[in-house]
Amino acid sequence: MLVKTHEVTSRGADASKGRIRAHFAISNPGDEDRGADLKWLGVTILGAAPLGFIPNLVLAQVLWGDAGAPSDLLFRAVPIWAAWLMLGVFPVMHGLTELPTYFGCVMPRLHTLTG
């Protein structure tokens, strides 16, 4: 199934630009609330960390009898030739895929939308 992409018209770009600017005006209140925001960020992280971490330990203990078993399964030794291959292939693949996608496709559209 082919998906049609829409072209950004100048009227659509102006409307989107207004929505984007309005969003950042709301989400960036200024420096006067920064201390209170950082306090709530700390409280949220301290509350969310145990809620996300403790069930993983309990579930690993129930399933495998050891909380360290999932890391033993996830992190294993890689042969040296594979490590060198990854060190060479990753930068090349990054240069051939991610950068052209951003600079050739995403950035012009963002520039059209935001001006």
Low-confidence region ranges = 1-5
Shape: flat
Structural class: mainly alpha
The major sheet is characterized as:
none
How far is it from the N-terminal to the C-terminal residue, by CA?
33 Å
User: What's the SSE pattern?
Assistant: HHHH
Q: Overall pLDDT, averaged?
A: 80
Number of strands: 0
Q: How many H/I helices? A: 4
CA-based gyration radius: 23 Å
Helix content: over 70%
Q: Approximately what portion of the residues adopt beta-strand conformation?
A: under 5%
What does this structure look like?
This protein is mainly alpha-helical and 115 residues long. Among the domains are: 36-76, no CATH class; 78-115, no CATH class. The protein is 78% helix and 0% strand. It has helices spanning 10-27, 34-64, 69-74, 80-114. Mean pLDDT is 80; it is low at 1-5.
